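P.,

For your records, the input lines for the assembly:
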Amino acid sequence: MNESLNESKDLAAEKLEDLEQSVEDNATEEKTMDEMMEEFEAMESAMDRDAAMAAASTVPVAKKRRNLARGNAISGLIFVSPFIIGFLLFLLYPLQLSLRMCFCKVDAIPGAGLRLTWNNYDNFNKIFRVEPEFLQYLVEEMKRMALFVPGILVFSFFMAILLNQEFKGRTIVRAVYFLPVILASGVFVGLENNNALLSSIKDATKADSSLSSITTTLEKILLTGETGNKFFQYIIDIVGQVYDIAMASGIQIIIFLSGLQTIPPSMFEAAKIEGCTSWESFWKITFPLIGSMILVNVIYTLVDFFTRTDSNLMGLFDRTLLQRFEYGKVAAMSWVYFLIIAAILGIVMLIFSRRVYYYD
Amino acid sequence: MTNVEKQTFWERNRKSGGYLLRKKVRAFLFRFARAILIIGLCFLILQPLINKLSITLRSEADLYDTTVITIPRHFSIESYRFAFMIMGVKKAMKTSFFLAIGVALSQVLSCTLIGYGFARFKFPFKRLLFGCVILTIIVPPTTLITPLYLYVQRFDIFGIFKLIFGKPLNLYGSWVPYILMCLTGTGYKSGLYIYLLRQHFRNEPKELEEAAYVDGCGKLRTFFQILLPGAVPIMVSVGLFAFVWQWTDKIYSRVFFPSTKWALISDQLNNIAASVEGYYRAIYGEAAKPPQAFSNQITAAGTLITLAPLLVIYVLAQKNFVESISQSGIKA
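Structure tokens returned:
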């Protein structure tokens, strides 16, 4: 059993690697640094060669190249070494323990930690067949993702473009839009939810708005039409969640804005002189050049969405862990959840990394 | 030239065949729509804060007065005083502040190095290692909490400590493992910072480093003298994120720090409703319960107190990390 699990884990890791590879491949279409250096070395040696060394120089060049590659690898490993040490020291053991807990009945023994007894796939059996909430929450979460993630991305891209324009009080407005980075983090999130007074006010305002307002009337008109019902429903859902979307898109706006600011203004000037309208220069210049930022943001948004602490699923995990003490079940649930996230991220990366253009 | 200046707007408009007017109107409409959108969304984000501020500044009588909507009739800062007392703000803030500073600095240091390593060098097992980084980003925190908690209490590196001391080390309640994790790029959200910094270094032009290498600059010196200055804005942002997320974190820190010894501000805020209840019970007897509105007011005050230092730091750093984030190496 353990082996099959390891296999599946390996498979997942391989998938991730493949994805990474495809990303890398894309990036290395231009000459990589090593190649450039090698070329340079070759040129240098060619210059050296003019004298009597000519005959003997081929061997040292090959050696030099190998040394260079090795030197690069060593310095790369040195730069990355903290992570290797940290991963081995701090994360490997907890990861394997939690993976083992998926397949075990876990009892807490006071003073001596945990006792794991093998019980095959009982945990998985339980979470899929017995636990009523897990599958339901999982599906809900996926649905919410399909609604939120594109909404957040479009909203933050749009806001970044607006905030990149010149207008009075831009600094203040920017500061306000990045506030959610602080406001939507950690403790502040949970507090609102268990605040009875606030939530009752929220309910009251909700009930009020459904009576008669321009938006509800508009909603009714749009939804009674025959065509595009689903599309309108989607837009209306997003507009209804605009507060949550704004609260979740602080960092995305920062990332997009920094991307927008790296585009040299001379490009837009050149395009304008050639007769490009701003609509065209948006699609032909801004959009391709911000591609790598879109990838970063898609990944960030997905990860942030899935690991946020106030989702129903996280609540279920917490309840199972802290109130019912079913460690094995929690481990199984969170690994299933994790594999699903990994699969979604993998697919998204595969789709996007092919299209991303790196500007050098 | 003088002729042009003397013409009125309408004359110029007539000469252009109405184009000038249309252009002006269109520009005005665009600015107007943009202003409405921006101000509206600003209000959306600020409204909860304004609401909290208004609630906390009321005296107790105003809390139950339905005619008071935003501006209190009787101003009072009693709620802040109470929240200060019940949260033990002074001590908690000091602890949280030093912890968050330590975490932010060590995260920035380690993640910059690691991010650069992943961005620019080729080495064996690179993809596997980067896969591990991605893994640390997407593993839900709940997966790791229990094992980490156990591990910290019986810390051991391949049985070495057991050989020396006879038993594994109990590092629970010590800051050492937490800071070590941050220093090795495996702390809270470290993977994300590594990813951000890697993406930044990948976008830097390679010509910079090549020029440095050609001039005989070593790898370390190239990194510190050529690439680091350009990375300062993104490092400031990462440091800010690390500080903020450590300050407000209520889950991950609990694995390492028992709340009795380390009173963190996030923990204090998280438990504020319970503290208020406990306070009421201690004074008015077992059956007493604080009124809902009062407990909400104290929670709001506590939130604003916890938020205040972050806002100060944010305002100070904001300009640096947004305005100058654009400076890319090749222009400098």
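Two observations worth noting. DSSP finds 17 helices and two strands in chain A. Chain A touches chain B through 105 residues (CB under 8 Å).

Regards
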